[in-house]
Amino acid sequence: MAYDTAAARGERRAEWGLFLGWLAVGACLVLGTAALLSVGPVLIALAAAGTLLLLRAGRRHAAAGALTGAALPLFLLAGLNRGGPGTVCHAVPGGQTCADTYAPMPFLAAGLLLCAAGLLLFRVLVRRRRAAG
User: Any transmembrane segments, and where (predicted)?
Assistant: First the structure.
């Protein structure tokens, strides 16, 4: 029976903290790639700096968070296109504004798949690391 000691809780917090760091790196990298002609280079530079910092921290199994982070832009796209597919109009002061939108479900499905895969991979790698000692 494993006891939940303060050291074990601190270890878990550190692992999840690194996972969240990698999540941010993954999100910056995907958003930077998508916005390459505008703010993309800045986001890619942030992702590169974050990668260097996180690799120095060790615990490379937390890099599975980058996979989960790649899901965040897909969730954003699903949210922005939630009225689609087709032309969606909204009332604004003095009239209306319309925009063509995509179907949100493919973005949502891909985001959920990436998010679940990253979390599952992280849990498997953490358990394997703990079993190894």
Answer: 22-55, 62-80, 107-126
